[in-house]
Every structure is written in structure tokens, then in C-alpha cells.
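Before the break, one more example. Copy the sequence into your notebook; we will annotate it together after we see the structure.
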Amino acid sequence: MARFTPVAVLSLAAGLGATWLGVRGVGEVPPLGALLSPAVGLWINTTGDLPAQASANIPGLTDAVDIRYDTRSVPHIFAKTDLDAVRALGYVVARDRLFQLELQARAGEGTLTELVGDVALPADQETRHLGMPRSAEARMTAMDTTGMLYGILRAYADGINAYRTSLSTAQLPVEYKLLQKTPREWLPVHSMHLLNRMGYTLAHSPLELDLLQARALVGDSAARAFWDSSSPVQEPIQPAPRSASREALASLPAPGTPDSAAARMVAALGAQSGPLLWTRDATLPVNQRADVQQERAFASNNWAVSPSRSANGLALLAGDPHLELTLPSIWYEVHLVVPGVMDVGGVTIPGLPGVTIGYTRSFAWSFTNTGADVMDFWRETVNDAARPTTYELDGAQQPLETRVEQYRDKSGRVIATDTVYFTHRGPMRKQGSEWLSMRWTVLEAGSELLGFYQGMRSATAEGFLDSLATYYQAPAQNMIVADTAGTIAIRSTGRHPIRANRGRGTEILDGRTRANDWMGFRTIAQYPQSVRPAQGYLASANQEPIDPQYDSLYLGTDPHYEIWRALQINRLLRADSSMTPDKMRQFHTNPGSVRADRLAPALVAAAKARIAQGDTSKSLAAAEAMLSAWDRRYTRDNTGARLFETALGRVVMLLWDEFIPTGKDAALVRPSESRLLQLVADSGSAWWDDRRTTGVREDRDMLLARALVAAYDTLVVDFGDPAKTPWTWGTVSPAKPRHLLRLDGFSAPNMPIDGGRGTLNPSVGSRFANFGASWRMVAEMDAQPRIMGVYPGGQSGNPASPRYLDRLAMWGNGQLDSVRTPRTPADLSARDLRATLTLTR
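Here is what the structure looks like once it is written out:
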């Protein structure tokens, strides 16, 4: 692409000032003179990308390590010992992703201000108030420095630092030049910080205040119907003994009298117009926070098919974790071989010393997020409301632990200081006039890497899952696996709390007694799971892990989960008993949508009903015609999906007026979209009435038609007359992989794709959020497994490298590349070889 030429780099640098000011978190405009220097500036980043032959030294290596880069730029690491393989892994990851390593670790450590400036202060304060750096440091302090885990972390750090110290100023990644910083030393604790950051990303969804605020607005019964009940449609991860989903579309209780006790608590928490301080995106305005949280929906999928339902009699597995689309990608593809010890490949997260999702010679695996409720809150009674030193517990005063947190800017100057308090449960923070403490499984994890290293030595699917379950605590994941013997299996692995009195994690509890503490955790036998299912396939897509009809022990409530993709993938798998790897590949970007199939007809029917009753709106007639003609498939060239999505957004804005506090103009909370299924089946539900209008009582058809007209008129303003400029989906809703610092010059161009919200490829791009399939993989488990995979972007983190975006087109078109799996260096043919690297002491 043109941006990779020296001329393009010059143009980028010349225009950098304007771009820089629009990016949050990157500080002042850098001096352009240094950036334009031919000796040390941006020019040098366009040269010497991946030399055909290279050698380097890593202190501590016990023997030479041979690394072969294939034509896909994947390093195949051939080492004599596992720790040498880990040292080499650290080196090659740093070679391609050094800046990303530091940025991600600092995000989990709460020290972003030291890299990008004080604009990152709110993010750092949130991280430290959650107790994340304290947790990581405590793990390292308690870690046996002679044990396996410390050895892995130390070896990985040695590899990263060997590359880091080999760099001259001219060779630094371009981001360091822009920020006028140099890479810091990588320490073993930085991997612990990154683990916590992943926990924050995947297991941080407290809903206690949502329920409390809803109770204060619509009463206890109505609020609990939305926030303290299971999903109305059940297609669980652990297969239920039936051949279809279970629907419970009972009428929802009408809005009731506000709960006065809840209202008093909301007032005491100072939360009449915002979330808990612990909540993600707490500093954003209400409407933006709701948009980000909806778009963030980490819509990962994985599924596996037994030999009995595959065309070639082999087990098949597919996975595509959906995370933020960044450049460079969150993933880095690797392959490690230590004869007789390991032969494992797949993708790693830069900063974590191991393969997170991938394959061995015996099995392949993938993850989706479980979404379980693993964070609870207690209302504490302290001795001093302003500067507490103790808290009440079982009739006695217990001392609070305090930790003074200092935040520094890029020059090292202290720019803020906080005191963070801790009870025996975890961090404590003042919310309004109350003090709340929190317990979170993420802060108690840390042995997950051992599970991976033990698991990849297994020979069977069950052995892999059992190894992970022994060590893996958080964030809880739906781990699916298929092996060469034909076994497929899944388990929702991670620590799932058991509350006092078998309670639910939906209330803020009284902290004055240990009787309200967690009582323990589900045993591994109690995890939702299935091995060799009778139905011949398994699937997870962030839905409820187990049907509560068969296991009532609390895992979470409807807002923790999503139903649409689970319904779609199960629909596809049930319909085909002769599955192939290529069909699995096509499923990744299948544009079909149960969500659209269930909700679009309701919009069309409402429009037709209103027109039959005499509504003469031209916009309504045009919108009805457009939606009626739409096949409800999110292909990139369809012209109906944009209207459907905008109309649903308008429905939500009109529907949930009951959750708008007096004097405000936006709903504090919103029920999950799955509740629309219950409402469209109940045309006269009180929820359809918009209390902001006078002299009219809206029913279902009236409100849906009003939303459809508003959506159509909005899109005409935004995109023009659809008869002249069609609202083509790929144009108005493209995927947008963006650079980690949000620099437009380093981001990818908009990418039209098939898929949308509720499909198996629910990529979402907006000015607030940008999420999609971060890695796609299909594995055919023959005696020699055949693996295909792709992610958006490329192996290099250097925007001037031809390896920065070389996978994006394949990803956008739903294609997969064949993964090379050589057993020895000699197995990688000359035509598949791109470069070699030899590492010695």
C-alpha cells in the first residue's frame, strides 16, 4: 500500500500535528525535525523489515535455537528445551510487537500516563482502584522462584530484553519516536499485569447497580424480570436433552411503583445519573456508555463436530474469538517445537508466554468468554467516613489495608496521588456517601499459564480440559477441543463463586458479617460441560452455559449473555450431518441472522397494520417496502440491514422511557435485546406506551412504526435518498481495524464485510467502539491435523512493513490460509521459507 513508501512516511510525518491533537492519550505534538531525520527518524522504519538471515544472542540460552519464518511470516521455533523455546518466543514477539508489549502491560499495571501522558490518568486510576497491580505484585511475591511458572516468566522476559537492548535509537518502533520514549525493561510481573488486563476485558460486567437503579424507577418485580432472571430463550452450551431451543416468552410484568428502599440506596450511592465507579466506561456519558457496551459485545464463537456428522469421518473444530480490532492485532501467530516435549502452534497474546488458542499433533482448541458473574459488592461500615482506618466485621473492628498510588507523567513527575483501601474481600471505594468493597475472581487468579503448559503435553481432548481445569481460574472461558481420536468436548472453565445461602450475585450485600461472603466455588464436576455429545456437535457463542431448568445454581443473569449467535450456529449445525472444513470456514462469515428473522417481520407487520389503519406517511411506506424486500442476510451489498439496525436502535430509545429519571433525557439502564422477543409477542404490554407523549397510549404497532419512520428519515439525512444512493451495508457499516494509539495514518482503510450484529460475524465499527473476529481457525483432526487460520492485520507491528496489513484482505473476504506445521527445520520447504534467525548465548 502507498503508506509504506518513504514518500508516504514523509507525508504522514508532515501532517502528524493535526492528527496528534485528535488522539486521546498520546500527549504533546513531537518535534517533527527528529521524526524526519534520515538517520533516526521515520525513514529508518521503512527498511530492514525481516532480513533473510539473522542471528542474535540471548543470555541464559542452554543451546542454539533455530527459527524459520515461513512465507506467512510465522516463526517456527525449534529448541532443545522448553525454557529455551520460551526465551526465543519472547525474542520473536518483541522483534515484531515491542511497543504493543509495553502498552498492554502498562494498561494492566495502571501506568499508561508514564508512556502516553496525563490524558490516560482516568484509565490508570480505574485500574489501580480495582486492585489489579496490587494483585499482580502479590502473586509475584508469593511465587516460588525455583518453580516452573517463575522459570517460564523469567525466560520470556530474558528473550524480550535481549531484543530490546539490541536496538539502537534509530531502530526503535515508530510509536516510541512519536511519544519520545524508549522501551522499558520487561519484568516477569508484566505478564501478570497483562493477565489481569485480559480479566478486565472479559470478566468485568457488574450489574448490581443496574438492578438497583431499575428497582428505583419501575419497582422490584419489573426490574427483576429484566436483570435478575435467565435468558428467555435457552440454547445452552451444555446440550439439553432436546432437539431445539427452549423459549419462555411469558408476558413481562408492567412497570410498577418505584421501590423506595432502592431509591434511597441509589441516592446514597450518588448514582442517580451514572454507574458504579467500578463499572467499565464509568466516566462516559450515559448514552455513549450504552453504545460502547452494546458494541463491545465480545461475540466469540466456537463449535466442534463429531466424526459421525462430518463428511470425512474426522472430528472438526472452528473458533473465532471476537475482540477489539486493533493494529497490530491482539494476536501473534507462532509455532514451537521441542522434541519429545512440545509441538504446539497457534496464536499468542504478546506479553503472555504461551499459545492461547491453537493446536498440537493430537488436538486443537478454542475459547469463548463464559460471561459469568464473578464480581460482587458489599456495603461496608467504616469508622471514619472521610478517612477510614477500620471496618466492622462480625461485631469487631478490622484494620483496613491501605496502598498509596502515585501517578507519573512521561517525565516522571507525580501528577496525582490516591489512597486505595482493601478489606479481606478486596478493594474498597467510596461511592457517594457509602463505602463499597468488591471481590473479583480475576484478582485471585494467576496460575493459568501452568494449565496451558501442562495441557499442551496431553494426548487427548479430555486430558487437555482436565489440565486447564486444575490451574485455570479467571477469566472463565468456554474451552472447546477436538482430538485425532474423534472426541469433541467443551467445558466452561474457571472459578464460579457459590454465594451465601445459594444466593445470586445481583445485590449489594451487607458487609458487616462474614455470613454474606462467598461460600466457595463450583467443583470441576459442576462446571457446565459435555464430552462426546449424543447430538454429534457442540457450540458456544456467549450464551447461558447451562439451562437453569437443569441446574439452578447461579452463574449469571440474562444481561450477562447473548442468545442470537447460539441460535444461529445451532440452526446451521442441526441442518447438516455431512460437515466439511470449508463449510465450517463459511460459517465464520455466514450473513444469516436469527435476530433479523425474528424481529424484522415484527417491524414489517407493524408498518402494514398502521398503513391499513390509514397512516399515509410516505416514509413508512418506503421503509416497509425496503424491509419487506430484504432477505434478512447481512451481505456486504445488501441495502436493508442499515434500516433494520437503525430502526431497532430507535425502538430501544422509544421503548425504555420508564428507565429515564425525572429531569434526564436518556435511560440510565437498558434491558437486553432478547427481551424484545417477549414484547413483540404481547402487543398490548404496558411497556409499549411512551409516557413522554400525552393524549395517546402507544401499542406495539404504533411504537414500532414510529421507530421505523424515524429511522428512515434519519438515514435519508445521513446517506441520501436510497433510490439514488443505496444504503449499501458494506459502505455504511464497514470493519475498521485501528492503530493502538488511534492514529488514522497507521490504521486500516474501511473494510466492507459480510456480517453484522446478531450474525456469526458481528463486526461493529463506530467512533466509540470497534470489535470483530480477531482470529479465525478451522481444524480437521486427521492423523496429521490440517489447520487453517487468519486474523485481520499482519505479524509485524511496524506500520511501514509489508507484513503490517498483508492478512487483512483475506480476513475481510472470509478466507483462511493453510497453516504450516513442520516437525523439523528441514520440513519447511524452500518455497515456504521467508527468513531464518539463529539464537545463541
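The two ends are 38 Å apart (CA to CA). The first strand starts at residue 53 and ends at 57. Try to locate both features in your own notes.
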